[in-house]
């Protein structure tokens, strides 16, 4: 079959997108020839604003390099302007004489900046903002001159003004009306925008009408109708664009504002000629944004490929301003009329404004300023005509407020803007993560953590990062495997290894590593700590703790601070204390000149800023006063929080403080898979917050409710009720049994909350509640493990153990 | 300058652990590997100055106690993807004693 000739006039965003769509559908249908007036391949015109602001380079905004044309067999005449279309002979003729014959023709000549017909508008230094040439002129002027005047306070004008300001110029924006961006913003949002741009140093002359551009060859100033003048070395006219219909008109195609086209993007005059992009007028509208042009491109390509099924019926548009640091979103009819209602939120202090225009419970338009995270969501609801009555009350709070039901996190994360912060700890935005995933070809969570630090700290954003991965790499993404190896040194899981240790009686770390064929000789900080705990738990009376396999907090028995000093938290059983004890702590604090003291959230006293060398001496004094370590630093039993209880409180049903002290005496010193906290409340008012602890006892008239598996922290989890018991002795036995079951079953660094969610409450109940024999056995084992554990580590060290750890070597040098 | 100074006996450094050496104006962490190889590095993490002597050693790497950067003890370089470097010092073991070149 003989190929037909397709010619494209206008090597811009709409035209080339049409070719790309066409090549996907019918790669061999046409011999393609392209004429472009600009001397480049196709570039992303939208990104000229960031180029002007030095946030991007020209290379970074190229969409189709010249190689692309070659690879697809397209003849590119760059730098050649078409001056004539001869429809009778089906030829286009460029101004340099190049001729091309067409069977079908696409006109995509875009638009031209509207230049106000003012006296002096032809002087050097008066330009529009449309192409690379204009940006070059602006950059060059900025390097040599001081004063820039931008006429027009719309989207384009403000982006130009922002860029010029970034290049160091004094910029004045002249606007005819009293509010900026009147086509995208209502008055309150426009006022906020103006204020923040002024704060950055932009000057505005509102309600000013330009009368004349003054100067000789080159512009030197601007005069207004009110007679005032300001100096100007550069005048950028950004008062609007005008569809570039010059060529269409001269070829006799019917034009109004733009070249008039049908729903298949064919000109109504000549069906062999298509027109697309900003130069056309479709159903009365000439668009000035890329989203509609790309939709047009799809339809035109479909028709050119002779599929003939697509129709273009118009596009609802939305806009954002590309000025870094300013968040602004607008869509649809955001002003409203007498049939519509507005929902408005405004907080001038935080710079947030949201307005949604509703009609018959559907969104008709929206303006967001400051917080635009939900812009795409509103836009979608608007396009879909969704009935929002069910969540009208919370609509302004955004999509996350709806909860997860019905909103898959994948789509939620996909709709977030690039600058949405995903990882709060490390300040990593969505854009950074997506960029790292695509550029560095990352496929796993670990890789993303390593390269971006996202989800590498507190981990609360792990789910979002996984969704982003899934969304960005699509089918290639392999979700985190269900059975995770203990660490990178081995393929075996925590459970494999825990069972192996018992079954094969592996009593030292090297034995474990060689049995399970470790890939590293010494292991890594993850597995060393885990193995040390597993061995200690399995062989409490035999295993010799390996200090070098403990995190420094546990090795030094204090929390390391950001300056390398340590904190000291003595245990105060059940939060109870005497005046003598408080005095002893005060004396110690004075003696060691403790810089800061604080009452902790765990009902005891923290002393901060202690030098490591001082720790043993300080502990000695505390020990002499009867204190032991509070283990505030350990994967260990931490605190038992109590409330006042029946001794004093008018509502108390049982002695919660007394029971708390007994529980702490039972459990203190115990090493655990993770930190472990208890609380006892004297009645269901629950002042000790027992229902967010690993074990929470709630006293009631008839006895004690035992709650388990709660925690505060990053993800709050309320406890599950384990059972109800009648006596204090039972509370102690069940507690010891529960502790031991957790110690023997959970993975290292798995707190009771995620552990119970993983294994299920039933399993725990079976072992600790239903099976009395097993409970007794667990309790026995707990008591055995507590014998060596309740030797106070502080006292041991105060008496000289591990002295080297606390003694630096001083040398003269 | 640049003379070798005896600082500690090898067996006074815990295996896979360190001792902190303080001179008049600097602090140096001396580590001992499981193969008795010895390393000396300034006791300050290239990230935010964390005390590397308090970190966990594995192979010839130490993990900083503050934010888990991993530092190669023979070169002082942070392992990828982090960037940074801490001074290392020449160190040798002779007759069971550790010498630093300062
Ligand atoms: C001192 C204290 C804050 C205070 O002044 O009140 C504190 C201080 C620290 N907490 Fe906490 N937590 C303290 C009570 C709490 C509480 C409140 C409580 O226990 O009632 C919670 C929420 C309840 C809970 O644990 O469920 C709490 C939840 C956390 C978490 C999040 C745990 C989670 O499962 O999500 C961490 C991070 C971790 O453990 O990985 C954490 C970690 C930390 C660390 C250890 C951070 C670190 O690794 O360096 C802080 C040490 C500071 C220092 O240098 O001493 N801290 N921390 C409290 C000590 C209590 C005590 O007497 O031992
Ligand atoms: C600074 C700036 C920022 C923008 N920001 C956004 C934004 O944030 N969002 C958004 O949606 N849109 C934005 N736009 C608008 C967007 O760039 C245009 O909608 C889009 O580029 C129009 O595509 P087009 O193909 O119709 O025209 P163009 O991309 O302008 O392509 C037309 C091409 O045809 C060439 N040409 C014209 N006449 C002839 C001829 N006779 N012979 C040969 N070649 C000819 C021109 O040189 C030009 O290269 C922005 C525009 C600018 C200038
Ligand atoms: S909340 Fe806890 S971990 Fe966070 S800064 Fe306070 S003490 Fe430190
Ligand atoms: S100071 Fe070492 S990792 Fe931050």
UniProtKB/TrEMBL annotation, chain A:
[4Fe-4S] cluster binds at residues 643, 649, 683, 687. Residues 422-470, 486-535 form the BFD-like [2Fe-2S]-binding domain. Pfam families: Fer2_BFD, NIR_SIR, NIR_SIR_ferr, Pyr_redox_2, Rubredoxin_C. Binds 1 siroheme per subunit. Binds 1 [4Fe-4S] cluster per subunit. Residues 634-773 form the Nitrite/sulphite reductase 4Fe-4S domain. Transmembrane segments: none annotated. Residues 560-624 form the Nitrite/Sulfite reductase ferredoxin-like domain. Residues 5-300 form the FAD/NAD(P)-binding domain. The keyword Mitochondrion does not apply. GO terms for molecular function: 2 iron, 2 sulfur cluster binding; 4 iron, 4 sulfur cluster binding; flavin adenine dinucleotide binding; heme binding; metal ion binding; NADP binding; nitrite reductase activity. Pathway: Nitrogen metabolism; nitrate reduction (assimilation). Siroheme binds at residue 687. Gene3D superfamilies: 3.30.390.30, BFD-like [2Fe-2S]-binding domain, FAD/NAD(P)-binding domain, Sulfite Reductase Hemoprotein, domain 1. CDD domains: NirB_Fer2_BFD-like_1, NirB_Fer2_BFD-like_2. One of its GO terms (biological process) is nitrate assimilation. Keywords: 2Fe-2S, 4Fe-4S, FAD, Flavoprotein, Heme, Iron, Iron-sulfur, Metal-binding, Nitrate assimilation, Oxidoreductase. Its cofactor is siroheme; [4Fe-4S] cluster; FAD; [2Fe-2S] cluster. Belongs to the nitrite and sulfite reductase 4Fe-4S domain family. This is NAD(P)/FAD-dependent oxidoreductase. It comes from Thiothrix fructosivorans.
From TrEMBL, chain B:
GO terms for biological process: nitrate assimilation. Residues 5-100 form the Rieske domain. It comes from the Bacteria. The keyword Glycosyltransferase does not apply. Keywords: 2Fe-2S, Iron, Iron-sulfur, Metal-binding, Nitrate assimilation, Oxidoreductase. CDD domains: Rieske_NirD_small_Bacillus. The keyword NAD does not apply. One of its GO terms (molecular function) is 2 iron, 2 sulfur cluster binding. Pfam families: Rieske. This is Nitrite reductase small subunit NirD. It comes from Thiothrix fructosivorans.
């Amino acid at each position: 079959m003989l190929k037909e000739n397709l010619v494209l006039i206008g090597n811009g965003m709409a035209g080339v997108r049409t070719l790309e769509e066409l090549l996907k559908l019918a790669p061999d249908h046409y011999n393609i020839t392209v004429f472009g007036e600009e001397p480049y391949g196709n570039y992303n015109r939208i990104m000229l604003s960031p180029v002007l602001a030095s946030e991007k380079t020209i290379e970074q905004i190229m969409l189709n390099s010249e190689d692309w044309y070659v690879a697809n067999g397209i003849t590119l005449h760059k730098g050649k302007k078409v001056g004539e279309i001869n429809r009778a002979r089906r030829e286009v003729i460029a101004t340099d004489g190049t001729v091309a014959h067409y069977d079908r023709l696409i006109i995509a000549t875009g638009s031209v900046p509207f230049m106000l017909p003012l006296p002096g508008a032809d002087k050097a230094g008066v330009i529009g903002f449309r192409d690379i040439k204009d940006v070059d002129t602006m950059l060059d002027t900025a390097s040599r001159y001081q004063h820039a005047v931008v006429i027009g306070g719309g989207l384009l004008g403000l982006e130009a003004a922002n860029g010029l300001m970034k290049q160091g110029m004094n910029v004045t924006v002249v606007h005819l009306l009293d509010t900026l961006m009147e086509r995208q913003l209502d008055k309150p949002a426009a006022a906020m925008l103006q204020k923040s741009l002024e704060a950055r140093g932009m000057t505005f002359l509102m309600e000013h009408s330009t009368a004349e551009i003054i100067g000789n060859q080159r512009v030197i100033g601007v005069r207004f109708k009110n007679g005032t003048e300001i100096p100007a070395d550069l005048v950028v006219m950004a008062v609007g664009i005008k569809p570039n219909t010059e060529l269409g008109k001269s070829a006799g195609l019917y034009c109004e504002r733009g070249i008039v086209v049908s729903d298949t993007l064919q000109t109504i005059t000549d069906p062999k000629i298509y027109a697309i992009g900003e130069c056309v007028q479709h159903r009365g509208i000439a668009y000035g944004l890329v989203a509609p042009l790309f939709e047009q491109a799809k339809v035109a390509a479909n028709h050119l490929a002779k599929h003939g099924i697509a129709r273009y019926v118009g596009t609802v548009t939305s806009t954002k301003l590309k000025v870094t640091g300013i968040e602004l979103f607008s869509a649809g009819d955001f002003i409203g009329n007498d049939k519509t209602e507005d929902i408005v939120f405004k907080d001038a202090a935080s710079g947030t404004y949201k307005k949604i225009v509703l009609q018959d419970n559907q969104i008709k338009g929206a303006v967001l300023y400051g917080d635009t995270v939900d812009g795409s969501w509103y836009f979608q609801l608007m396009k879909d005509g969704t009935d929002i009555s069910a969540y009208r009350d919370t609509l302004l709070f955004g999509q996350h407020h709806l909860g997860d039901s019905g909103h898959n996190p994948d789509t939620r994360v996909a709709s977030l803007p690039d600058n949405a912060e995903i990882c709060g700890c490390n300040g990593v935005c969505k854009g950074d993560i997506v960029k790292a995933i695509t550029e560095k070809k990352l496929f796993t969570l670990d890789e993303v953590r390593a390269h971006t630090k996202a989800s590498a700290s507190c981990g609360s954003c792990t789910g979002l990062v996984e969704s982003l991965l899934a969304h960005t790499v699509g089918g290639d993404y392999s979700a985190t495997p269900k059975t995770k190896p203990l660490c990178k040194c081995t393929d075996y899981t925590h459970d494999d290894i825990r069972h192996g240790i018992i079954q094969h009686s592996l009593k030292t770390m090297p034995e474990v590593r060689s049995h399970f064929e470790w890939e590293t000789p010494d292991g890594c900080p993850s597995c060393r700590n885990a193995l040390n705990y597993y061995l200690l738990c399995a062989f409490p009376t035999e295993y010799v703790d390996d200090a070098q396999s403990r995190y420094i907090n546990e090795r030094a028995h204090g929390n390391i601070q950001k300056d390398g000093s340590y904190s000291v938290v003595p245990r105060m059983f059940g939060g109870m204390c005497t005046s003598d004890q408080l005095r002893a702590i005060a004396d110690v604090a004075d003696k060691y000149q403790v810089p800061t003291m604080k009452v902790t959230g765990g009902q005891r006293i923290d002393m901060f800023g202690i030098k490591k060398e001082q720790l043993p001496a300080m502990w000695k004094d505390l020990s002499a006063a009867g204190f032991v370590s509070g283990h505030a630093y350990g994967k260990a039993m931490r605190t038992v929080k109590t409330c006042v209880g029946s001794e004093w409180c008018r509502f108390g049903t049982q002695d919660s403080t007394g029971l708390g002290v007994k529980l702490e005496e039972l459990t203190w010193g115990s090493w655990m898979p993770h930190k472990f906290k208890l609380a006892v409340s004297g009645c269901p008012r629950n002042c000790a917050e027992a229902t967010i602890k690993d074990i929470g006892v709630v006293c009631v008239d008839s006895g004690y409710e035992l709650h388990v598996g709660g925690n505060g922290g990053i993800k709050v989890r309320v406890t599950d009720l384990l059972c109800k018991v009648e006596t204090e002795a039972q509370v102690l036995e069940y507690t010891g049994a529960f502790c031991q079951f957790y110690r023997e079953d959970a993975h290292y660094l798995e707190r009771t909350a995620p552990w119970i969610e993983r294994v299920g409450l039933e399993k725990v109940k079976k072992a600790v509640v239903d099976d009395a024999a097993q409970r007794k056995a667990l309790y026995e084992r707990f008591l055995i493990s507590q014998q060596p554990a309740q030797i106070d580590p502080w006292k041991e060290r105060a008496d000289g153990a591990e002295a080297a750890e606390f003694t630096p070597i001083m040398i003269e040098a | 300058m640049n003379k070798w100074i005896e600082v500690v006996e090898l067996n006074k450094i815990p295996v896979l652990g360190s001792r902190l050496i303080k001179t008049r104006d600097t602090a140096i962490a001396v580590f001992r590997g499981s193969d008795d190889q010895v390393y000396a590095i300034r006791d300050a993490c290239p990230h935010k100055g964390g005390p590397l002597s308090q970190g966990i050693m594995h192979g010839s790497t130490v993990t900083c106690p503050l934010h888990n950067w991993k530092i190669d003890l023979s070169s002082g370089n942070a392992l990828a993807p982090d960037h940074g470097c801490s001074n290392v010092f020449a160190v040798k073991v002779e007759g069971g004693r550790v010498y630093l070149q300062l």
